[in-house]
Amino acid sequence: MSWPRLLLVRQSFPDRAIRDIPAEVYRELNQSPFASRLAPGAPVAIGVGSRGISNLATIVRAVVSFWKSKGMRPFIFPAMGSHGAATAEGQAEVLAHYGIIEETVGCPVISQLEVVSLGKTPDGIEAYLDKAAYDTGAVMMVGRVKWHTDFTGKLESGLFKMMAIGLGKFAGAQQYHTFAHKLGLEHVIRSVGRQVLASGRILGGLAIVEDARHDTALLAAVPAEVMEAREEELLETAKSWMGRVPMDLDILMLDEIGKNISGAGMDTKVVNRATHGQYNPWPGPKFERIFVRGLSALSYGNGIGIGLADIVHDRLLEQIDWIPTQINSLTAGSLAAIRTPIHFPTDKMCLEKVFPTVGKFAAEEVTLGWIRNSLELGLLALTENLRPAIEANPALTILRGPDEFPFDSEGNLPFLWDWAGEAAAAEHEAAASRH
Fold first, then answer.
1. What is the C-alpha separation between 208 and 162, in angstroms, rounded?
2. Could you tell me which of 395, 387, 353, 347 has the C-alpha nearest to residue 367?
3. Residue 54 scores a pLDDT above 70
């Protein structure tokens, strides 16, 4: 096969990173009414989720420090529905992998699955709340506001979704997803969230909004009484900052998927797929085929999202732990998201098989983009036949190339950031300085 050559390209996004995250956390929480609503010495339950949020441990540590400075007794609990294989131990382990343990954040981490019923919504959906959190009478959440992978609405993924699905543990997550088939997920999130708020147990939350570089760009203390309207505003901001692959492609190649990257394994609105298998359902760049090469170590074996790919490397299948993968898929009702695509033992074989399926007569005509994952879009490789489009886009800069596909003697490729070398090192250094 005569392969097109590759160009290493940097995509520039506005830098919106907060430089002093702990100071911004303190500023937001100090100007909120949260502390004034509690007596000194009161316990405070802080719900933390399972997504790959930048600077999450730093943010949580600052929240804990704030509450302790006010004389309160904070503790952390996992707010992640069925994730961590729907076990108390598994959910504590997920938090630990994000650096959220008592020794690093300065307060206990209490992981258990017992819930308290908060009554039913007008649609008959029973709402639940983690019992340890319920017993405190004062719950706040720390969560990211962003677009959801399954639907488009005014309220998608954020504090309300964390209340509706995360706080209710496995008992809640399973029921809410079932009702969503009939009522729609946005309706369920809103109605269950309102039921949870009506319990009087929720102080509010610290909302996190990230920019296209996956940096912490906005932190907002959101009191319970304005949460619904404020989260709609924050979602509009998050969508306006969204990073995208810069053009249509015949093949989009990803080094990794994972729950730490997206709830669907890869961000459906970046790769333009839906969790039930639909091709290119969203506005934005369109892709004929998706090739996935591996699973992020921070996904802990959860391979949900494999079914969104058209072809995968055998190593991805070998990395999957099917127990948490199946639990997550069955709970969410997204069975297509874990179907096994066609797969081969080397990258070269995968590409040789998929190139002829995109409607081009010659391999040199096939357009391909290579990204690390659906979050990391600042550094990518694009085939040389895309040079005119690259040069016409002021946000794109060619760093190197054209180079041949860097197959090794076994027919495998390095991972993108290893191949990128100094350019990737510069990305790491810049990210470290921002964080």
1. 13
2. 387
3. yes
CA distance 289 to 308: 10
- DSSP β-bridge partners for residue 141: 47, 205
pTM of the model: 0.85
pLDDT tens digit string along 296-349?
A: 998 989 999 999 999 999 999 999 999 999 998 988 888 999 999 999 999 999
Give me the residues paired with residue 126 across strands: 120
Lowest mean pLDDT among 3-12, 110-119, 163-172, 336-345: 163-172
- Find tokens 């096939």 and name the residue: 366
Q: Which residues of 57-89 are buried (b: 16+ CB within 10 A; e: fewer)?
A: bbbbbbbbbbbeebebebbbbbbbbbbbbbbbe
Contact 207, 238 (CB under 8 A): no
CB 435 within 8 A of CB 54: yes
Q: How far is CA 418 from CA 128, 229, 293, 379, 400, in A?
A: 45, 44, 14, 12, 14
Domains and CATH numbers, the chain: 6-13+243-434 (no CATH), 21-240 (3.40.50.11440)
Pairing status of strand 379-383 against strand 368-371: antiparallel
Rounded CA-CA distance 303/104 in Å is 29
Q: What share of the chain is helix, strand, coil (3-state, %, to 5)?
A: 40, 20, 40
Of 319, 156, 185, the closest CA to residue 306 belongs to 319
Q: What is the CA radius of gyration of the chain?
A: 22
Please name the residues in contact with 226: beta carbons below 8 A apart, sequence gap of 6 or more: none
The burial of 19, by beta-carbon neighbours within 10 Å (0-12 exposed, 13-18 middle, 19 or more buried), is given as exposed
Q: Which helix (H) or strand (E) holds 371?
A: strand 368-371
Spatial distance between the Cα atoms of 187 and 335, rounded to a whole number of angstroms: 22
